[in-house]
Design brief:
Oligomer: single chain
Radius of gyration: 30 Å
Low-confidence stretches: 1-17, 23-48
Number of strands: 6
CATH architecture of one domain: Roll
Shape: elongated
Strand content: 5-15%
CATH class of one domain: Alpha Beta
CATH topology of one domain: Chitinase A, domain 3
Structural class: alpha+beta
């Protein structure tokens, strides 16, 4: 489906050309908590449970409980992306207030009994396992990010892109065939300026840029549009072309082989791909060798031998 407006600048190869290629290399989404993010940090038990690090400065005390710099870092991680939108000085104050409230409530006299409840113990065990899982999957993902592995993924993706062609075109979009036919006449006979006519007559939101669609691949436009555009020669003006959006008049500006993005431009995507792939394979292997028993439903009958 055609997206309007299309980019109107002519940047270096857009990374979105590279993403589907990685997807084609069996990029899997790991259906687990913590696989592609930092392990969820639950409300930290500030410093008291761990040996003091002389380089880990105590920044506050709440009813005698130390809050250290490391506690602030863990709490900030726990608060997630929203806290990152706050300026650093204000963020620090909010994180400190967050930790202080946790300690005040947790250490309140009537809160002590909570630690003895079955629910609390179950939640502690779940949280512990989630943290271990998150850290382990981080380690697995990190170990997969070797230079050799990243270069191999890049080279495979680039090779699969092949010799795909892309074109840069302008278009004028109008409601009727009559309007489009008159525009073609003005362009061919009166030698009207295409960009000027686009600004004047096109109903495409990109008309302000003279109808420039930038470079695009054949699959990025509706078939009726691409079928015509990719058969044209540079400088050619098309006959009216009908699509679900209306009637188009196309001018082909340039043809080229689809540019390959530089490695550094897609390095982050490759790292994400390799990390998730390694995590997925790691968990899949554990599922194969692990024993999961369902006691809440009847066991499945063994498959009949043929």
């Amino acid at each position: 489906m055609m997206t309007l407006p299309m980019p109107t600048s002519h940047p270096a190869p857009r990374l979105r050309h590279f993403v589907p290629v990685l997807a084609g290399l069996a990029l899997l989404t790991l259906p687990l908590i913590g696989c592609d993010q930092k392990p969820a940090a639950q409300a930290p038990a500030p410093s008291a449970a761990a040996p003091a690090n002389p380089n880990d400065k105590v920044v506050a005390k709440v009813n005698g409980v130390d809050i250290r710099e490391s506690d602030l870092a863990i709490a900030e991680d726990d608060l997630g992306q929203e806290i990152q939108q706050i300026p650093p000085d204000q963020r620090r104050e909010q994180v400190l207030a967050y930790l202080s409230d946790i300690i005040l409530v947790a250490k309140a006299p009537d809160s002590a009994k909570m630690a003895d409840t079955t629910e609390f113990k179950q939640r502690i065990e779940l949280t512990r396992n989630k943290l271990i899982m998150g850290l382990q999957l981080q380690a697995v993902g990190k170990a997969a990010l070797t230079d050799e592995a990243m270069k191999e993924v890049y080279n495979t993706a680039v090779k699969s892109m092949g010799d795909e062609e892309e074109v840069r075109a302008r278009h004028i979009l109008v409601a009727t065939q009559e309007e489009a036919t008159e525009i073609v006449r003005q362009l061919r006979e009166d030698k009207a300026d295409f960009a000027a006519l686009a600004k004047e007559k096109s109903k495409d939101p990109g008309a302000a840029d003279g109808g420039d669609l930038g470079f695009f691949g054949k699959d990025q436009m509706v078939p009726e549009f691409s079928e015509v555009a990719f058969k044209m020669f540079e400088g050619q003006i098309s006959n009216p072309v009908k699509s679900q959006f209306g009637w188009h008049v196309i001018k082909l500006e340039e043809k080229r082989k689809k540019a390959v993005p530089e490695f550094d431009k897609v390095k982050d995507q490759i790292q994400t791909y390799l990390s998730r792939k390694a995590q997925t394979e790691y968990v899949a292997k554990l599922r194969e060798t692990g024993k999961v028993e369902r006691l809440d439903k009847p066991a499945e009958a063994p498959a009949a031998k043929k």
